[in-house]
Design goal:
Chain B: Belongs to the small GTPase superfamily. Rab family. The complex is a heterodimer of chains A (493) and B (246). In chain A, 43% of the residues lie in helices and 21% in strands. By secondary structure, chain A is of the alpha+beta class. Chain A has 3 domains: 10-210, Beta-Lactamase; 231-366, Beta-Lactamase (2-Layer Sandwich); 372-485, 2-Layer Sandwich (Beta-Lactamase), CATH 3.30.450. In chain A, the strands form 2 sheets. In chain A, strands 6, 7, 8, 9, 10, 11, 12, 13, 14, 15, 16 and 17 form a 12-stranded mixed beta sheet that branches. The two termini of chain B are 16 Å apart. The relative contact order of chain B is 0.20. Classes of the chains: A alpha+beta (493), B alpha/beta (246). The A-B interface holds A 174, 193-194, 196-198, 200, 290-292, 295-301, 315, 335-336, 338, 342 and B 14, 19, 23, 26-27, 29, 31, 33-43, 60, 62, 64-66, 70, 73.
């Protein structure tokens, strides 16, 4: 498992961007301008639409989709969305759009494609546009173009990483080589046909942008890591060896992954082959949003982009049992081996039941994160997340008051963490430690060779010595419980 | 007690209700949130008919175009095919026809075919007439049923018909890939979803009227349409010498 790859060329691109912003200052790409672009179109449009535009109250509602050409660009709700993600082909065909119906945004997709190709004519590649508080970040990966538009305080790099995740999810569905060959044959192919049925995987990946529940999941994508289901290491080892003993005679089996509640229980792999954290996160995403996997055994081709973006693996996906919502994935390169894997799964379930491990998994699943007060006894820390850099595993504390029941508060906290993360990892001047006092909390970010710690404290701790003592207590506790909280060592068939 | 074990493949366009149909029968749930099937899902169920225990291994396939290439994996060695279309969408009916052509081209073994028109609760939007579907079913030697998953009409019959069809197929010993054996399990160990059928009796070759359960208003829509039951319901391919003996 390796960490997030560094952007060595960021410095250059930053300069490019400045030039770009100058060049584009005439276009001044902002809301007002989108309006003016639409203005031309309006002149051609029918009277009926004029009525809608003239009434801002009605145009802010998305219920108007039944109008043939719904005008999103005059829809203040749509315009003011915090985050937009667009995917289009290099030929300008719309593929995906986070908010609204992409069919009705053809003009905008055309514009995005034009921006990319204008810069390409100078043998350059557009990276981003900044207009006031809005960032437009481009990821050009022929034959796809991904554009992220963000009004929050996310850095360009963070938006770029998000687009990269989305791109990988598309590859997960269609396989890079297949996608390329499709576009080679037909440049204007509509990729939506290939993605059909799996759009919700992309939606789910971006769920934090349409947040409905408060959870730690965005810190997982921020730190490019995975969370581990806490359990005694002896139990974890027994579960692992149960999988090993039932699978080690199966030819062509590459990975076995057992997960529950978006957390990893164990992973067994073929010798010399590795599962990348980014691939694992895609798997978590797909499992988390596919309710229907629960009712049957499933067999589907998937592509793990970091493992091999040009080939597919066949995955046998099933839940352990009705009384245990842990999901087992067995990934093979042999498309005929469903019966063997189905049988292996049956045996694994049986052995897990006999060893009372199902009970242990269910107990682990109740865990909502580390309880700071009762588990560790640090009362001044409100929330933290800790990334174990060696194995890219993340530990999060339970989200408590004042963030748990207040979406606004939580989003502010999240934004502060994103900002901290951005500043401490800035390639031009990476830092080791940030300590900040805000109006409502104190925050700390600390990066060492082995771990990264991000923590939020009560605002009224006035002595640094108290903070240091609390952090030390926390770190000591993590070290003591390491075997339980993290998955150490790798297991092969 | 005699038992047979058979593979069944569910085919049809996307959104016609294949997974809903199967899930409704197997676990008696209907959910709009179920989402499209990706790849394929595998279900098993047991049903006791005419003193024969039928073990079904169902492959519920994805209707999306990109999974079409995977289909041979599922229909190869299948003993029965459940072809589902949406009665409110004529295209899905045409696509069933292309599935039939594909099966006829690629499957050698005899196969029991059941054509199912789903979503008859949307009668006012009907686009495929019952007559047309029956005529087509007869032309390919398939049986035809209409169902509504939403109103729970005709679901039970689909699986009973498959069961009877498979028993028929196995008694003619035409199908070498089907497992036949003596089961030691008692008669009582039936699949749970059969329990509400206990009051109904089945006779050889007699098809039953639709089971109008309490919750469903009797609108006379759901009806069993039986194809040529007496005629060999085996659609295509050439009967091979059975590899099964004794």
């Amino acid at each position: 498992m390796s960490d997030i790859s560094n952007f060595s060329d960021e410095e250059d691109s930053r300069q490019d961007d400045c030039a770009l912003v100058d060049a584009l200052s005439e276009i001044n790409f902002n809301e007002h301008n989108i309006d003016s672009i639409r203005q031309n179109k309006l002149e051609e449009s029918q009277e009926q639409k004029h009525e809608i535009h003239s009434d801002p109250a009605s145009s802010s509602s998305l219920n108007f989709v039944d109008v043939d050409e719904y005008d999103y660009l005059h829809d203040s709700e749509w315009i003011n969305q915090k985050c937009h993600v667009f995917i289009l082909s290099t030929a300008g065909k719309p593929i995906y759009n986070l908010h609204g119906d992409e069919e009705k945004l053809n003009t905008l997709f055309g514009l995005l494609q034009a921006l990319v190709s204008v810069v390409q004519t100078d043998d350059d590649c557009i990276r981003s546009i900044t207009a006031k508080n809005t960032k437009f970040v481009f990821l050009v990966k022929s034959p796809l173009i991904l554009v992220g538009v963000n009004k929050s305080n996310r850095s360009e790099q963070q938006i770029y990483n998000q687009l990269m995740d989305v791109y990988n999810q598309i590859i997960f569905i269609v396989t890079l080589s297949h996608m390329k060959s499709v576009y080679e044959k037909r440049n204007n192919y509509d990729l939506r046909k290939l993605v059909a049925g799996s759009e919700r995987w992309v939606d789910h990946l971006l769920r934090n942008e349409k947040r409905t529940r408060i959870c730690n999941s965005s810190f997982v994508s921020l730190t490019h890591s995975v969370r581990i289901l806490p359990m005694e290491s002896s139990i974890r080892d027994s579960i692992t060896s149960t999988i090993q003993s039932n699978c080690n005679k199966i030819k062509n089996l590459v990975f076995a992954v057992l997960l529950a509640n978006n957390k990893l229980i164990t992973l067994v792999r073929m010798k010399n082959y590795y599962m990348h954290t980014d691939d694992l996160r895609l798997i978590f995403n797909v499992i988390d949003c596919s309710e229907s996997f629960k009712s049957a055994e499933n067999w589907l081709p998937i592509c793990l982009p970091k493992f091999d973006s040009n080939g597919a693996l066949y995955a046998h996906i099933s839940y352990i049992s009705d009384d245990c919502e842990a999901c087992l994935l067995l990934m093979t390169v042999d498309q005929e081996s469903f019966p063997i894997l189905s049988n292996a799964k049956k045996n694994i379930t049986e052995k897990l039941r006999r060893g009372n491990y199902i009970e242990a998994i269910n107990t682990g699943m109740k865990d909502k994160g580390i309880k700071l007060k009762s588990d560790i006894g640090v009362s001044e820390i409100r929330h933290f997340f800790y990334k174990n850099k060696k194995n890219t595993q993340l530990l999060c504390s339970e989200i408590t008051a004042p963030y748990i029941d207040n979406l606004d508060q939580f989003e502010k906290l999240e934004a502060m963490y994103y900002d901290l993360h951005n500043r401490i990892h800035r390639t031009s001047r990476p830092l080791k430690l940030i300590y900040e006092m805000h109006q409502h909390e104190i925050q700390l970010a600390w990066v060492t060779a082995n771990y990264e710690l991000y923590a939020t404290f009560e605002p009224l701790v006035d002595k640094k010595s108290v903070i240091i003592a609390q952090v030390n207590k926390l770190l000591k506790w993590i070290r003591k419980e390491e075997d339980k909280l993290f998955m150490t060592g790798t297991h092969i068939f | 007690m005699k038992a047979i074990e058979a593979k069944i493949v569910v085919l049809g366009s996307q959104g016609v209700g294949k997974t809903s149909l199967v899930a409704k029968y197997i676990s008696n749930i209907y959910s709009k949130e179920i989402g499209p099937t990706i790849g394929a899902s595998f279900f098993t169920c047991k049903i006791n008919l005419n003193n024969v225990k039928v073990k079904m291994q169902l492959w519920d396939t994805a209707g999306q175009e990109r999974f079409k290439a995977m289909a041979p994996m599922y229909y190869r060695n299948a003993n029965a095919a459940l072809l589902v279309f949406d009665v409110t969408n004529y295209t899905t009916f045409s696509e069933v026809k292309s599935w039939i052509l594909e099966l006829q081209k690629n499957v050698q073994e005899p196969m029991f075919l059941l054509l199912v028109g789903n979503k008859i609760d949307l009668e006012q939007e009907r686009a495929v007439s019952r007559e047309e579907a029956i005529i087509y079913a007869q032309s390919i030697g398939a049986q035809f049923l209409e169902t509504s998953v939403v109103k729970d009409q005709g679901i039970e019959q689909v699986f009973i018909s498959i069961g009877l069809g498979l028993i028929n197929l196995s008694s003619e010993s035409k199908c070498s890939s089907m497992k036949r054996y003596e089961s030691k399990d008692s008669l009582l160990s039936t699949h749970s979803s059969m329990s509400n059928l206990s009051g109904i009796q089945y006779y050889d070759g007699v098809h039953m009227a639709i089971d109008i359960s309490q919750s469903v208003e009797a609108n006379g829509i759901g009806r069993i349409e039986v194809g040529p039951w007496e005629r060999d319901a085996v659609a295509h391919g050439y009967p091979q010498k059975s590899g099964w003996c004794c």
